[in-house]
Amino acid sequence: MTRISGALRSPLTFSVLAGLVIGALFLLGTGADPVSAYEAVVTGALGADGIGSTLTTGTSVLGLALALAIPLRAGLINLGGDGQMVLGGITAAVTGLYSPLPAPLTVALALLAGMAAGAGYAVLAALCENRLGVPLLVSSLLLSYPAVSLASYLARYPLKEPGSSLPQTRALPDGVALPAFGDSTVTLGLVLVVIAAAAYWFTDRRTAVGYEIRMTGLNPRFSAYAGVERRGLTLKLMALSGGLAGLVGAIGVLSFPYRFVDGSLTAPGYTWTGLTAALLATAAPLGTVVAAFFFAVLQVGGLAMERTTEVPRELTQVLQAIVIVFLAARLRFPGHLFPSRPFGRRARESEAV
Q: What is the rounded CA–CA span in Å between residue 244 and residue 246?
């Protein structure tokens, strides 16, 4: 009961509820029915016709959310998700097109190659901070641009599908694809991302490494005095972060339409939605999963809302922005209504620091 009470009074819950209330006020101001609009979002995202799209979108959103939450847990901000994801995707496409191995082995190799490409590129950003003194936030963001440009060049010229007017690579050979669940677009990639989330939770809550990461995020000076080597931790966490981002890119290529399409991985804004989810959950494993699913529902449900109620889907983006603004503002209410201290185990860790 204490945990439930703390969750209900937490800044996260307050921010989400405030976003929904203000969104309802926007709808009323435009003459729309908030109940019908929100019902259309839920039905369109979680109904029989929309759950497949939600899980497909959630695979990418959750993958990027986890990728960015891992370093964020230690106070490190990786803004290079786009570059790492795209580099993983184009590497998986090249591997799938030219691998001489049987199809199942080629799929496994493409996934590993995409992860390796993303991890290596993220480590480069970490080295820029460790060796050159360039802040990780800056180095990771700026390194995204050449990666995206390189992938775009490869898709438009050397690997371009002959006769196609679209900037896309040739289709992968038959069988070089992730298995799908039935006739849906949901693939084995969802299982891989869920396994990654479970591994993140176990490491964060049950291992000494997870404790070091949390302590570094809560108090870097304390963790340094305790013997945590900051540079080495940065390299490891960025490698994991980039590897997960590269995995998301590889999953996107090995799923429909089974090729690399220039802009298809970056246009939906998975990186920024994932970063929003990680920030909303303060990089906590379970919270990141819930927040990522929440944003996937908003993204898919917004399209259904626009079709059925003529309310623009941009409203869902407004809701996301409002939630983050309220969470960042940390509005100060009386202590018995809106405690400013964290709850549970996180509170005891903060006090110990």
A: 5
Q: Which residue has the tokens 């009323």?
A: 28
Asked if 83 and 148 touch (Cβ cutoff 8 Å), the reply is yes
Q: What is the DSSP string of 25-52?
A: HHHHHTT--HHHHHHHHHHHHHSTTTHH
CB 329 within 8 A of CB 318: no
Most distant pair of Cα atoms in the chain: their distance: 67
Closest CA relative to residue 63, chosen from 237, 242, 207, 233: 242
Q: Is the peptide bond before 257 cis (omega within 30 degrees of 0)?
A: yes
**What is the distance between the alpha carbons of residues 318 and 299, in angstroms, rounded to a whole number?**
11
Using CA atoms, how far apart are residues 282 and 68, in angstroms rounded to an integer? 11
> What pTM does this model have?
0.89
Residue pLDDT, tens place only, 138-170: 999 999 999 999 999 999 999 999 998 999 999
End-to-end CA gap in the chain: 26
